[in-house]
Amino acid sequence: MNRRDILRGAALMGGAALLTPEAVWAAAANAQAGDWTLGLADVESDVAPTALTRRHGRAPAALKGTLFRNGPAKFRRPGGSVGHWFDGDGMVRKFQIADGQARMAARFVDTVKRRKDAAANAVITPGFGTAAGPGAVLTGPDDANAANTSVIMAGGELWALWEGGSPTVLDPASLETRGFKTLRPDLKGMPFLAHPRVQPDGTIWNLGLSGRQAVVWKLAANGALQKAEVISLPRASYMHDFTATARHLVILLQPWVVDRFRMPISTAMAWKPELGTQVLVIDKDDLSKRRIFELPPFFFFHLGDAWEDADGTIRFDACVDQDPSGMGADGQAILRGQVLPAAPPRRALITLRANGRAAFDREAITAEFPRSDPRFAGEARRYSVHLTNQRPDRPLLQGVAVRDWKRDRDQIFDFGPRHLVEEMVFVPRPGSSQELDGWIVGTTLNLDAKATELHVLDARHVDKGPIAAWRAPVALPVTFHGVFVQA
After folding, report:
1. DSSP state of 375
2. How far is the C-alpha of 403 from the C-alpha of 407, rounded, in Å?
């Protein structure tokens, strides 16, 4: 397999009907659609730098830096709209905290997709759940790149990430788009997942998927390419995330597999639970050294950081569904204002033992967007941070939780049913080397105030709620992933 094979496979298109704006708004106006649909409303323009209003508390003096977040913010155009939440135009937000004050700005990523859709006055670019519209032409994956999923800092550049194409480089100060990142000329346009794994020393590991092949990327902390090697996979599974220990890459191959090559991506997949879930463990120093573990079938988007015991046992947390019938296959429903009938994902602990046996322990608590202390990424750790939802009848998420694996205990703060809570990140206290000594920083959408809010919580006392909070003069739709860059 070579670069041409990957680009050709990623550029194939289908032709199902587009979701029209009339259908979207008619459904959103239905009496059963709550005002939570504000979390998926369109943003029409960039947000200039502006001060946030402090609501209560005060940020710790040592907390200084910027929270960058990324997510879709434009879904509907007069001539046709996206067919899945995941296909909206990417908008990167920045929230700066310094001297007890906070400011924000937001800017759309200037992608090929956004320019072509704007020119057509319709969403014609295919994606995860959106079919190609009239006049759509893809010459490679980056023609469909929405740059709408995550962000990472590398060498002074801010990269906006998607699943199937190149990183998009932004200026971290102005959020201006500088273009696609080419890590090596002969690798231009190769896919780069939205969930790279960053070691404590800054080394970046990532994958790029195309069917049963993957590119393994290894980058220095400054973003310079150190290695790009193609490996084969046992199956062509849908993969949004992977995890890693200090010594191994851990790749989960769920039984939502490519049935045929076409776009939208979700229509190319088939759920085959009889295959079970495979876990491929690969030695970072020698990618030919691999082991495969077998687990029951489940669907997932996100995994926590893995760690390794002294005897070689690998452990990590995962946020798992019974199957992809919820957000995976039906992200269009939430745009229509419908609460998905599928149960929310639940937390699980996966154990891969040195003797080749694997254990899958699914827990009762709902969980999504797992994070941990980045200073311990890939190393033995005690805590996990994730979002939770104690109201199955409500869409999206309303709470944040800290899991203590040693004590088998959870701390939870519930923001209440009038907040839509976005992924929260851990920020270490400067000068500290103790795990979870720091703050959890994140945003919510306050439905009563119709405004985005920024919150800081003491990571060791999450159940007491925010120690500081600010409110923006604007409501922005819910994002997916972010990163905090300390000043």
Report:
1. G
2. 9
CA geometry: angle 38, 40, 44, nearest 5 deg: 90
User: Both tokens of residue 299?
Assistant: 């669907």
3-state secondary structure of 230: strand
Is the C-alpha dihedral spanning 336, 342, 346, 350 positive or negative?
negative
pLDDT digits (tens, 9 = 90+) for 38-71: 999 999 999 999 999 999 999 999 999 999 999 9
Amino acid at 429: R
Cite the DSSP H helix spans in 302-355: 331-335
Judge contact between 177 and 169, C-beta under 8 A.
yes
CB atoms within 10 A of CB 187: 17
CA distance 417 to 137: 43
Q: Collect all residues with Cβ–Cβ distance below 8 Å to 474 and sequence separation of at least 6.
A: 47, 50, 451, 452
Check if the beta carbon of residue 416 is closer than 8 Å to that of residue 399.
no
- Would strands 101-108 and 150-154 be described as parallel, antiparallel, or unpaired? unpaired
Residue 228: closest CA among 183, 172, 167? 183
Distances (CA, A) of 339 to 104, 107, 333, 366, 391: 30, 29, 7, 16, 12
Q: Is residue 42 within 8 Å of 73, Cβ to Cβ?
A: yes
Cβ-proximal residues to 308 (8 Å cutoff; 6+ apart), any chain? 245, 246, 247, 248, 314, 315, 378, 380
Strand partners, 256: 271
| pLDDT of residue 16 exceeding 80 | no
User: Residue 5: which H helix or E strand, with range?
Assistant: helix 3-10
Residue-by-residue DSSP string for 389-451: -S-TTSSS--EEEEEETTTTEEEEEE--TTEEE---EEEEPTT--STT-EEEEEEEEETTTTE
Helix, coil or strand: residue 193: coil
**Would you say the pTM of this structure is higher than 0.70?**
yes
